[in-house]
Design goal:
CATH superfamily of the largest domain in chain B: P-loop containing nucleotide triphosphate hydrolases
Oligomer: heterodimer
Shape of chain B: globular
Strand order of the largest sheet of chain B: 6-7-8-3-9-10
Largest interface: A-B, 20 and 29 residues
CATH class of the largest domain in chain B: Alpha Beta
Order of helices and strands of chain B: EEEHEEHEHHHEHEHEEHEEEHEH
CATH architecture of the largest domain in chain B: 3-Layer(aba) Sandwich
Number of strands of chain A: 0
Shape of chain A: elongated
Number of domains of chain A: 1
């Protein structure tokens, strides 16, 4: 099983490096804007006051967010989250589907391994890839925060906020796994993952506009409320439970289907 | 001992037919041919044996063990060459071979070198830089590198040039001499004839006939096509052993079975433009053997 795990890591090495570099670059550039924005805070507030409230809500800009660096950082996270979710969904969908899509399933499954081992190796590899991505991202963000002026944030809040990326990624990884195993034939992994992530993202935007709490249960983008994290220094338990339950259910279902289905060639 | 044994093995893809009640027994040390036209169910049978797909009903065992229940254990001793070869495009040949070897708990490095030498394979090339024929060669090495006891080959020679086919057949014969059982599917009769001891013929999902190669060879048909300058008189080829006679102006085709000399004498008396004596293809076999 170790050989399959290492094989997957090698196969994804390049694309993971590209993801890490792009995520860090975009987030770092965005964050570098903070010192100059902070010095013009009063002017910024006046401008924002003229915007419609619904628009600000949709953009994830709450009333107090610009008062602190933590608020500013949470906006960056909201955008980065869209990208990291696509990474996770793509990974979850692709890591199993690529064998059938690329016709290599016959190669792999004619080896002396059972399907549980195949799926487990792939799942562990995907988790490792996401962990590596997050470790690099967290390290890079922390490094930049320590260097930039005016960027003061409590360590715990920083970690909690940044880790929401990983938690939302895990949701999409589980979903992607389930989709790749149950969908009969996947022609394009990217189009499936992009559309799925965007649907959930749009549901999230509706929540911000409507302000209904019920919608929050429908999309992982709203499982973790940054304002709540800033105020309480923790996640909301009910959403954390929801996430874990979903993950376990999705992965068990993926195993169940993968073990009993036919492997198609074309 | 039966290396492969299937009993009433049936596979439906939803409502469409895969195979119906296939019974085959492959004994240890045999080279067993599995022949039939495209879409007859050859690959389906093989894919059930490898538990890539699951049978609708019936049973299949390899080395006396159920193919689904003991799949991973059985596969330690199976070498498989798929009909269509696809591998991880970005890998180098040697990395792919080593990856494949890493699934078997033994050192295959010596065998890899040996096989790559025989098949004339470039180990440093990337998979996506290889031609189809070269990918097929990679597949052959992958199928043999762990010295399996059972070698399953699905349409093995497609994409190989005649010289390489010869090398490949010799390789298979050597493996067989060393004790490996060979199960080979094909739609090309001559391929099976050259190699196999026994042959099962499959048509539309069902086994039509299982015969020893020696019996099949005895009842050999030839397909003869004659083109003459003058029109051939009607009834000229009315003789024992001729069947399926078709005349079109100056050209005549028929199947012939029996003493070839009797027919060559007849043909020699004609003023010919051209003459073909061919091995009948599968379709002809089905038409003339199993009406």
């Amino acid at each position: 099983m170790l050989n399959m795990y290492l094989h997957e890591l090698k196969q994804y090495r390049r694309i993971t490096m590209i993801w890490i570099v792009s995520l860090v670059t975009v987030a770092a550039l965005y964050m570098a804007l903070y010192p100059s924005m902070a010095s013009q805070m009063e002017a910024m507030k006046k401008i924002l006051a003229n915007y419609p409230k619904a628009l600000l809500a949709a953009l994830g800009i709450g009333p107090n967010l610009f008062l602190s660096f933590a608020g500013f950082y949470s906006i960056i996270m909201a955008y980065v989250m869209l990208a990291t979710s696509i990474q996770a969904m793509n990974l979850g969908t692709g890591i199993v589907a690529k064998e059938e899509h690329g016709h290599t399933a016959e190669f792999l499954l004619s080896k002396p391994v059972n399907r549980t081992q195949v799926l487990t190796a792939k799942l562990l590899a995907a988790l490792t890839i996401l962990l590596i991505t997050n470790v690099f991202f967290i390290a890079a963000m922390w490094a930049e925060i320590s260097v930039l002026a005016k960027t003061t944030i409590e360590g715990k809040i920083f970690i909690l906020m940044t880790l929401t990326l990983l938690f939302v990624q895990l949701f999409f990884l589980g979903l992607g796994f389930l989709v790749s195993v149950t969908a009969p034939k996947i022609r394009s992994v990217l189009s499936i993952s992009l559309s799925t992530v965007f649907v959930f993202y749009i549901i999230g935007i509706f929540d911000s506009i409507i302000g209904s709490k019920a919608v929050r249960y429908l999309t992982p983008f709203k499982f973790f409320d940054n304002q709540y994290i800033i105020n309480n220094g923790s996640y909301e338990l009910s959403f954390l439970v929801l996430e874990v339950v979903f993950l376990i259910a999705a992965i068990l279902a993926a195993y169940y289907y993968y073990l009993k289905r036919d492997i198609h060639t074309t | 001992m039966n290396v492969i044994e299937t009993k009433k093995l049936t596979k439906y893809y939803g409502k469409s037919r895969g195979i119906i009640e296939v019974d085959i027994n492959v004994e240890e040390g045999e080279i067993y041919g599995f022949i039939g036209p495209n879409g007859a169910g050859k690959s389906t049978t093989i894919r059930v044996l490898l538990s890539l797909i699951y049978a609708t009903s019936g049973s299949a065992t390899i080395f006396g063990k159920d193919v689904v229940k003991f799949g991973p254990e059985i596969k330690k001793e199976i070498g498989y060459l798929p009909g269509e070869v696809f591998y991880y495009d970005t890998m180098r040949v040697k990395d792919l071979l080593n990856y494949s070897a890493s699934f078997y708990k033994k050192d295959c490095s010596k065998r890899i070198k040996e096989l790559a030498g025989i098949m004339n394979l470039e180990l440093d090339k990337r998979i996506d830089d290889l031609s189809y024929g070269n990918k097929k060669k990679v597949g052959i090495v992958l199928g043999l590198l762990h010295e399996p006891k059972l070698i399953i080959l699905d349409e093995p020679t497609g994409g190989l040039d005649p010289l390489m086919q010869q090398t490949f057949f010799n390789l298979i014969r050597d493996e067989n001499k060393k004790g490996a059982t060979i199960f080979l599917s094909s739609h090309i009769l001559s391929e099976v004839q050259r190699l196999c001891d026994k042959v099962a013929i499959i048509k539309e999902g069902r086994i039509v006939k299982i015969e020893k190669m020696s019996d099949l060879a005895q009842s050999n048909y030839s397909k003869i096509k004659v083109e003459s300058k003058a029109a051939i008189p009607e009834g000229y080829f009315d003789m024992a052993g001729v069947s399926g006679l078709k005349t079109d102006n100056h050209s005549t085709t028929f199947m012939f079975k029996g003493d070839i000399n009797s027919v060559t004498k007849k043909i020699a008396a004609l003023d010919l433009v051209s003459l073909f004596v061919e091995e009948p293809d599968l379709e002809d076999i089905f038409l003339h053997y199993y009406q």
